[in-house]
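User: Can you recover a sequence for this backbone? Please restate the input before giving your answer.

Assistant: Of course. Working from this structure:
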């Protein structure tokens, strides 16, 4: 329990309630005044230009105060500042991207009745349409001298204080306020959009085909994770929200789609923290006739191109070095290190750890270090010990190569090291960003792995996979040697922005 007493919000809530009542009265008056262009919520307003376009075209007027363009525009935006005086009122309108422009409503420009109605009916937060000439004010501020105004949408709830930071809870729970108030929130959305476009562009350049696979599945698989369970009334059967698209994308590869990818949602009924969300966006890709080295090359290219896209239009354009929200510069350029899991663990503990190291020896080491492993086997112990000893020391983007076979049931055996599979995890900023494999395409070995997983499930491992006969049937028709990878989109944004996962997801799930 926290030692801090929660702040008393009663006074604030009463103030908001009172403001809402006042605004409801203004809404009613606007709806009664038919001459104001459709009441409080008109169907449309005659916009002829956006605020960013007006600023771009006439920004030069600010160099000559008290000048005029001679052209009239119709613009609309949210009122984020107001100053009402006797015969002249000032307001700042903000567009969706955060661009602002000053508007001036004067007695001479709109008339006595319209000016009085403006003062009475327009509040901070309202969407306002104005038509007038683009000018530069006496102070050199780019402005619109208003000849006509209309409410475009009446805001019944007041805006938060625009000069104070929103709490994290408010930012996450009321993202619409975050987007109105905070530039970084808008930048995050645009960065994500540019990143997604970059990924698709890179895939297109390399001949990949984008597909969509089912989110409702009769059997969960493709990863070790606890699924969400639901029921289909139409089919009268239990269904699972997918934990990964892997098994269906491999079906596509069997069918001849030799370079295939999907960007879509996954759902895992597990914990939520600074790097995990129960619902998250995932990229998976499979490429025939390559291995985990080739798919690592592809992943590095995808991420570095995304960094270039995120930097486009900034002072870092053309650079792979991204700027995090806290001001840190993080370099995603160059060739990334590729290190051995067993080799680096051995160096860290001061003795050789190999795939033949016994469970008893690993468990003793884990006990000495206070590392707890649920349902321990060789692979789980090695991975947990590696995270304990090595992970936090990684600073650059790093591919951690060659994992224990026990923890990677869908991965091909290493071609030269017994007990190891050809798998890597990519670590950036201290967390796992992506994972890649030389894919297991032998249906006989795959069945053996599924049976082993089913045995683990019978022992109580609710993350273990079941035997998927439909997938095995597809694999029996022949899948070419392939490399595959999966990468969390929310985590990619974390690597590009330095933010936590709740900031990179536009509307995260919260209690």
């Amino acid at each position: 329990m926290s030692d801090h007493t929660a702040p008393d919000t009663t006074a604030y809530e009463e103030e908001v309630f009172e403001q809402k009542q006042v605004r409801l009265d203004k809404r009613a008056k606007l709806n009664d005044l038919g001459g104001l262009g459709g009441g409080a919520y008109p169907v449309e307003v005659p916009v002829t230009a956006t605020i960013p376009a007006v600023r771009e075209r006439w920004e030069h007027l600010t160099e000559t105060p008290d000048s005029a363009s001679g052209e009239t525009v119709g613009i609309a935006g949210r009122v984020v500042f107001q100053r009402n005086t006797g015969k002249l009122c000032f307001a700042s309108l903000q567009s969706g991207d955060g661009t602002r422009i000053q508007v001036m409503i004067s007695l001479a420009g709109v008339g006595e009745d319209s000016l009085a109605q403006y003062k009475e009916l327009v509040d901070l937060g309202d969407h306002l349409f104005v038509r007038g000439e683009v000018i530069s004010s006496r102070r050199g501020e780019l402005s619109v001298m208003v000849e006509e105004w209309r409410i475009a949408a009446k805001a019944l709830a007041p805006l938060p204080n625009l000069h104070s930071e929103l709490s994290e809870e408010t930012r996450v729970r009321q993202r619409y306020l975050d987007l109105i108030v905070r530039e970084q929130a808008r930048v995050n959305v645009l960065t994500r959009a540019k990143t997604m476009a970059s990924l698709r562009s890179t895939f297109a350049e390399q001949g990949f085909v984008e597909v969509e696979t089912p989110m409702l599945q009769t059997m969960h698989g493709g990863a070790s994770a606890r699924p969400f369970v639901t029921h289909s009334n139409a089919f009268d059967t239990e269904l699972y929200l997918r934990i990964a698209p892997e098994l269906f994308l491999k079906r596509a590869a069997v069918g001849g789609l030799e370079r295939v990818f999907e960007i879509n949602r996954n759902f895992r009924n597990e914990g939520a923290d600074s790097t995990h969300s129960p619902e998250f966006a995932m990229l998976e890709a499979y490429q025939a006739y390559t291995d985990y080295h080739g798919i690592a090359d592809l992943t590095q290219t995808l991420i570095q191109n995304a960094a270039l896209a995120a930097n486009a239009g900034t002072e870092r354009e053309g650079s792979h070095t991204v700027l995090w929200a806290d001001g840190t510069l993080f370099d995603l350029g160059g060739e990334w290190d590729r290190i051995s899991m067993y080799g680096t663990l051995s160096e860290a503990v001061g003795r050789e750890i190999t795939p033949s190291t016994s469970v008893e020896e690993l468990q003793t080491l884990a006990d000495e270090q206070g590392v707890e492993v649920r349902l321990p086997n060789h692979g789980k112990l090695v991975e947990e010990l590696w995270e304990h000893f090595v992970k936090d020391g990684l600073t650059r983007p790093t591919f951690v190569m060659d994992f224990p076979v026990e923890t990677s049931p869908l991965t091909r055996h290493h071609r030269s090291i017994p007990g190891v599979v050809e798998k890597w995890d990519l670590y950036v900023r201290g967390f796992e960003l992506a994972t890649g494999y030389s894919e297991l395409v032998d249906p006989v070995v795959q069945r053996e792995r599924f049976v082993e997983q089913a045995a683990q499930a019978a022992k109580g491992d609710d993350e273990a996979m079941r035997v998927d006969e439909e997938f095995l049937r597809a694999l029996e028709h022949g899948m070419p040697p392939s490399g595959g990878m999966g990468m969390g989109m929310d985590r990619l944004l974390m690597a590009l922005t330095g933010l936590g996962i709740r900031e990179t997801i536009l509307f995260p799930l919260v209690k």
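That completes the design. Residues 1-7 have pLDDT under 50 and may be disordered.
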